[in-house]
Amino acid sequence: LKFKWDTVMDLAARALTFLFFLLVIAFLGYCLYIKYIHMKYDHIPGPPRDSNSLFPPQAEKYGPVYRINMFHYVSLCTYCPEATKEILMSPKYLKQKSVYKKLFNLFGQRFLGDGLITARDHERWYKQRRIMDPAFSSLYLRGLMGTFNETAEKLMDKLAELADSKTEANMLNLINCVTLDVITKVFRASLTCCFFS
C-alpha cells in the first residue's frame, strides 16, 4: 500500500510540475504576443502605455493620427476629417466587427440598424450610398431648410410647454416624431405626430 501511495504522489508531483511549466510557457508566449502587438504600432505617436486616460484630446500633442493602448489592445484614433473619410469610405480598411455590432445593437436595443453607417460590406454600402446620394446633396438640403426650421420650432415649443408644466420629456419619442415629421414633409406627405397637434 505504501508503494502505491508513493507512486501516486510521485505522479501527482510530476503532473503538477509539468502543469506549472506549461502555464509559465503559456504566460511567456502571451507576453511575447503583447510585445509583438505593441512593437507593431510603436512607430505611431501616442500617449505612454501606462496612461490611464483612455480618450483624451491628444490630437494637439501627437498629431491627427495617434494610438491608444488599452491593456494589450491597440486602438488607432484620428481627428483628421480627410483621414476619417478615407478610412470609412475605402474598402481597403477593415471595419472592426465588434464595433459595428455594437452600433447595430446597443444595450440590447436596436440602435443604428443595418444601414449606411453600420454596413461592413463595401459593395452593399456603396450600393446604398449611390441610392441615397441625391437625397443628401447640399443643393437639395438647402431647399429643405425651411422644413427643418419649422419642425425644429415645433419641437422647441413642445419642449417649452413640457418645461413650463414641469413634465418629464421623453426625448427618444420626441426626436422620432421630429424625424418622421421631416421625412414625411420632404416626401410631400402631411403627417403630424401627436405631440405637434
Automatic annotation (TrEMBL):
Family matches, as Pfam families: p450
Domain of life per record: Eukaryota
TM helices/strands, residue ranges: 12-33
Regions annotated as coiled coil: none
UniProt keyword annotations, A-Z: Membrane, Transmembrane, Transmembrane helix
An example Gene Ontology biological process: cholesterol catabolic process
InterPro entries, per the entry: CYP46A1, Cyt_P450, Cyt_P450_sf
GO molecular function: cholesterol 24-hydroxylase activity; heme binding; iron ion binding
Tagged with keyword Membrane: yes
Protein family per UniProt: Belongs to the cytochrome P450 family.
Protein name listed in UniProt: Cytochrome P450, family 46, subfamily A, polypeptide 1, tandem duplicate 4
Taxonomic source organism: Pundamilia nyererei
